[in-house]
Design goal:
Length: 347
């Protein structure tokens, strides 16, 4: 399959309309959002949605998120909208928040992975909004990468993973948030966070104080676990080399990683995910900074691109510093733990 790459620097509207037509024709299009790039198809077209799973190598029991561009588009897709969902929409839409609601009969089982619920969100990225409107369809879209790989935050990463596997990739600016949307289950009360993201628990609590995080999302999932939302079950975000998290006092973390590096015959075989505050304290290895610990939003934005960057090196293993699990740090550690397959050494 020849993939059409549409860069939107020139002839913006023509490119958007062309991508929208590909969706209406049953094709699959990678497109930018404020969180990560998505791989979209008509959410109501079974054969189109099947193409998403095939292109990504995605397990069939991993549900998709449906993206809309206008608030009124949600009504045909769900059976009801609880008051708490309306409050979250009013506060955070458009933006990086997905709401789990009871789906209507319009949503095929393949899109929801056989569940009676569906995740819906309204992205704030202008290209995403224009593309969804041009398609005139609700867009089912997971991240635009091969399943298990770090999610793409640039058009180049989409091309790397999906060239010749999808009909079209449309470009835009790099993703601003850098981690996927927060997912909140609004079919239960109190509302439950099923995936942390750019909208933090602290922000959600300003709307509903009783909102809580499902404890299962920060633990290794059980074998027969049925995911209610994307990213809950399978290993995700992993570069080619295995990742291990060193969790504890920061100075002891640095000492531990330096000890590991010194025991390697070739220190260039060890990757280190560091920060601006620590990058010069390592005595070898391939050191890449995620950003400043004083700016966790920057770390979240850079997380996937840093994970991917190690694939361009000869590292055999990657060691990552841990981060405090509060605010956006919860999302950072959720992604890191999944990238590491929950391989964590606490010191």
């Amino acid at each position: 399959m020849k993939t059409k790459i549409i860069e939107l620097k020139e002839n913006y509207q023509i490119g958007i309309e062309e991508a929208g037509q590909i969706i209406r024709d049953g094709g699959v299009v990678a497109f930018p959002t404020e969180t990560v790039y998505g791989l979209g198809a008509d959410a109501l077209n079974v054969s189109a949605v099947e193409k998403i799973f095939k292109a990504k190598g995605r397990p069939q029991d991993n549900p998709l998120i449906v993206h809309i561009a206008d608030l009124h588009d949600i009504k045909p897709l769900v059976k009801c909208i609880p008051d708490i969902a309306n409050k979250f929409m009013e506060k955070f839409w458009p933006g990086p928040l997905t709401l789990i609601l009871e789906k209507s009969d319009l949503i095929p089982d393949i899109t929801s992975a056989g569940l009676k619920t569906i995740g819906i969100r309204m992205p704030s990225n202008n290209v995403a909004e224009d593309f969804i409107r041009a398609s005139k369809r609700p867009i089912a879209a997971p991240s635009a990468n091969i399943s298990g790989r770090p999610s793409p935050t640039t058009m180049e990463s989409c091309v790397e993973d999906l060239n010749e596997k999808v009909e079209c990739i449309i470009g835009g600016e790099n993703s601003e948030v850098g981690v996927e949307s927060t997912i909140v289950d609004c079919t239960v009360y109190p509302p439950c966070v099923l995936r942390p993201g750019g909208i933090t628990l602290e922000m959600l609590k300003q709307v509903e104080e009783k909102t809580y995080i499902d404890s299962a999302i920060m633990e290794k999932p059980k074998k027969n676990f049925t995911p209610k939302a994307p990213g809950m079950k399978y290993r995700h975000y992993a570069p080619k080399a295995p990742v291990k998290i060193i969790d504890g006092d920061l100075q002891k973390t640095i000492e531990k990683i330096n000890e590991i590096v010194q025991n390697y015959i070739d220190d260039k075989k060890v990757g280190i995910m560091a920060t601006e505050e620590t990058k010069n304290l390592y005595q070898g290895g391939v050191v890449v900074s995620l950003g400043s610990r004083k700016n966790p939003e920057e770390i979240a934005k850079n997380l996937f691109s840093v994970l991917r960057s190690f694939d361009n090196t000869d590292v055999e293993v990657i060691y990552a510093e841990a981060f405090e699990e509060k605010e956006i740090g919860v999302a950072i550690m959720n992604r890191l733990k999944k990238a590491a397959g929950f391989n964590i050494e606490r010191i």
